[in-house]
Amino acid sequence: MSESMPHTGHDELRELSPQASLDIGALCSRGAVAGLAAGFVFIMANMWYAGAHGKPSIAPFLDISTIFHASKAPVLDPNEAVVGLVTHFALSMLFGIVFAFAVQALGLAHRLPLLVAAALLYGLALYVLNFQVIGRAAFPWFVNSNGPNQAFELWIHPIGYGLILVPFFIGPRSANHDR
Fold first, then answer.
1. CA-CA distance, 129 to 134, in Å (whole number)?
2. Which residue in 20, 34, 149, 172 has the most C-beta neighbors within 10 A?
3. Phi and psi (nearest 5°) for 4?
4. How far is residue 57 CA from its own chain's centroid?
5. Who's near 27: CB < 8 A, 6+ residues apart?
6. How far apart (Å, rounded) are the C-alpha atoms in residues 175 and 177?
7. Residue of 34, 44, 40, 28 lying closest to 119 (CA atoms)
8. DSSP notation for the chain
9. What is the pLDDT of residues 104-150, one digit of tens each?
10. For the segment 26-44, what is each residue's pLDDT rounded down to a tens digit?
11. What angle do helix axes 78-106 and 59-69 make, rounded to 10 degrees?
């Protein structure tokens, strides 16, 4: 049972609008998947770093659980690792969605050098905002000397999160560009 919608005249306006290619669902989906992939690489690198430096490999999840509970320090408890895992991947998806909208708004999909630069800057901005601004104000564990290593986080945010977003947003080359 399929009924066709009456022609309203809005289709012509939508085609002429600069927002014609804005598909919010597609941006959210692409951003969420990109955020999950980047978040996976990012957390694996953090787990490796923790294990290689004498901490339990689940330490990054315990650190992140402090965000959910707004606690001053992590608690070594398997339940807290799950809380950290869920919080990490939820934030990774959210950050990926934000990046998707930025790529769309700035028209970066067809400009690979700018897309790469934007992704690296975005990763750096996430570090500064999450660790240096919000961490200092609300989550002191993230700037505590016993907490996450600041030099590693400064490096892994742009490389292990930001740069991993890039392949998900590279647009197709146009026929004119290939000539």
1. 6
2. 34
3. -90, 145
4. 22
5. 97, 100, 101, 104
6. 5
7. 34
8. ---PPPP-SHHHHHHHSTTTT--HHHHHHHHHHHHHHHHHHHHHHHHHHHHHTTS-TTHHHHHHHHHHHT-SS----HHHHHHHHHHHHHHHHHHHHHHHHHHHHHT-TT-HHHHHHHHHHHHHHHHIIIIIIIIHHH-GGGGSTTSS-HHHHHHHIIIIIIHHHGGGTPPPPPHHHH-
9. 999 999 999 999 999 999 999 999 999 999 998 998 899 988 999 99
10. 999 999 999 999 999 999 9
11. 80
Label residue 103 exposed, middle or buried (CB < 10 Å: 0-12, 13-18, 19+): buried
7 vs 10, 11, 13, 52, CA distance in Å? Answer: 8, 8, 12, 63
What span, in angstroms and rounded, lies between the C-alpha atoms of 38 and 169? 12
Sequence ranges of the domains in the chain: 44-171
Smallest Cα–Cα separation from 119: which of 159, 146, 77, 68?
159
Between 178 and 89, residue with greater pLDDT: 89
Closest CA to 108 of 166, 174, 21, 177: 166
Considering only 5-9, 27-31, 73-77, 136-140, which range has the smallest mean pLDDT? 5-9
